[in-house]
Amino acid sequence: MSDVVKSKEGTIALAGAGAVMLLVGTLHLVAPQMMMNAPAIELTTINHLHLIRAALGGAFIGIAALFLLGLIWERMRAFALVSIVVLFSGFAFGRLVSTALDGLPAGMFLGILAFELIFAALAVAALRTEQQH
């Protein structure tokens, strides 16, 4: 019998963040220019494509695997939830610093910020609930 109590918040955070990172990573891997169109970044060399496919595509797919492993492998669950808190809080912090220093970004980026904060908050709530049991 398992001794890990799985909270609804944790399951939503791991599945949601895992799915989002898998989708975004896959899109950066297979269609890097399409993903760079929204921020108006033009990829003009092989090196640009290589950087986006590796640094965003490959990294985000690896991060998605970590989150999804936490969903299915109980021994990884707490680590994966902490990883969501650290990563998504870091993304959100960077966006907030950029907003303070550079001004308000496009609405799409504010929506992404909201999702980052929601996933981080869900993971924090899950860690509190799951560690109490």
TrEMBL record:
Assigned keywords, A-Z: Membrane, Transmembrane, Transmembrane helix
TM segment ranges: 12-31, 51-72, 79-98, 104-127
Record InterPro entries: DUF4345
Highest taxon, organism lineage: Bacteria
Pfam families reported in the protein's UniProt record: DUF4345 (PF14248)
Name assigned to this protein: Uncharacterized protein DUF4345
